[in-house]
Amino acid sequence: MQTNTSPRRSSSSSSAKAIALIRAARWLCPGGIAFAALAIGTGALADQYTSADQASRRTSLSATHGPSLGLRAGYGVPLGSTAQGYDLKGNLSGLIPLWLEVGYRLNPNIFLGGFFQFGFGLSPEGCGGSINCSQNDMRFGLQAHYHFLPAKIYDPWIGIGAGYEILHQSVSGNLFGPFSGSGSASGFEFGNVQAGLDLKISKGFTLGPFATFTLAQFSSGDLA
C-alpha cells in the first residue's frame, strides 16, 4: 500500500503494509509502537477520578454510545511488487501515516465508521544528492471495531476494514541535465485487520498501541 500527471496504463500489482502505531482517541468512543498522536472528540471533558470504588470507576470510564473521533500515527512497511516485478521498496522504503477515523459507537462493544489516511513516504536508496524523490500514499474506506472489555481500564480490541488506495511518486534532479517525472498507482484495498489495546486515560479519552496489516491490489497506474 501495508505508503502525477503522467498518463496511466493498465497494470495489476499487489501491495501490502504492516503498520505499527500509537493511537489516541476521544469518545462519546474509541493504537506497534512508534509515534504518539492526539485526538479530539465530541464528548465532554473527563472528570477526575473522585471515587475509590473500583467498580464505579470502571463504569464511569465505559463509553455507551455516541460519535467518535480518533487520530493515529506510526510507521508503515511496504510489502509486495509492482506489475513489472519491481519490489515496492524500490519506490518507497517506509511510510509515516496520519490516520483519521470518524464513526459511531453503537454500544460499548461495537464501533462503526470511516477512515482517511495520508502517508508521507520515505525515499528509497538511489534518492538523495542530485536526485530528489517524493512519495505519498492515500487510503480511505470503512471499518468496524469490536471491544472486548469496554468497562475495564485496559480494553483489547480487534477491527476489520476495506477501502481504496492511491500511491504517488515524483522524481527530479540534474545528472547529465535536468529531468523530472512522476507516476501513480491506485486500486482497491481488499481488507485490513487491526488489533490494539486501549488504555482509558479518563472518561471519553483513550491511548494505546495497535498494529494493522492491509492487503491491496493496484489495478491501474504507471509506477515502475
Supply the key terms.
224 residues; mainly beta; 8-stranded antiparallel β-barrel; 1 helix; 4% helix; elongated; disordered N terminus
Describe the structure in your own words.
- The protein is mostly beta strands.
- It has one domain.
- Strand 7 and strand 8 form a beta hairpin.
- The longest helix has 8 residues, at 54-61.
- The protein has an eight-stranded antiparallel beta barrel with strand order 1-2-3-4-5-6-7-8.
- The protein is built from one helix and eight strands; from the N terminus they run E-H-E-E-E-E-E-E-E.
- It has one helix at 54-61; strands at 9-26, 66-81, 94-105, 110-122, 131-147, 154-174, 178-202, 205-221.
- The model is unreliable at 1-12 and 25-52 (pLDDT under 50).
Quick structural summary:
The protein is mainly beta. 4% of the residues lie in helices and 62% in strands. It has one helix at 54-61, and strands at 9-26, 66-81, 94-105, 110-122, 131-147, 154-174, 178-202, 205-221.
Strand content: over 45%
Individual helix count: 1
Low-confidence stretches: 1-12, 25-52
Main structural class: mainly beta
Largest beta-sheet characterization: 8 strands, antiparallel, barrel
**Rg of Cα set:** 20 Å
Helix content: under 10%
Strand order of the largest sheet: 1-2-3-4-5-6-7-8
Task: Domain count, please report it.
Answer: 1
Q: What is the average per-residue confidence, as pLDDT, rounded to a whole number?
A: 76
The coarse overall form would be elongated
Gap from first CA to last CA: 15 Å
Count all strands and give the number.
8
The helix-strand sequence is EHEEEEEEE
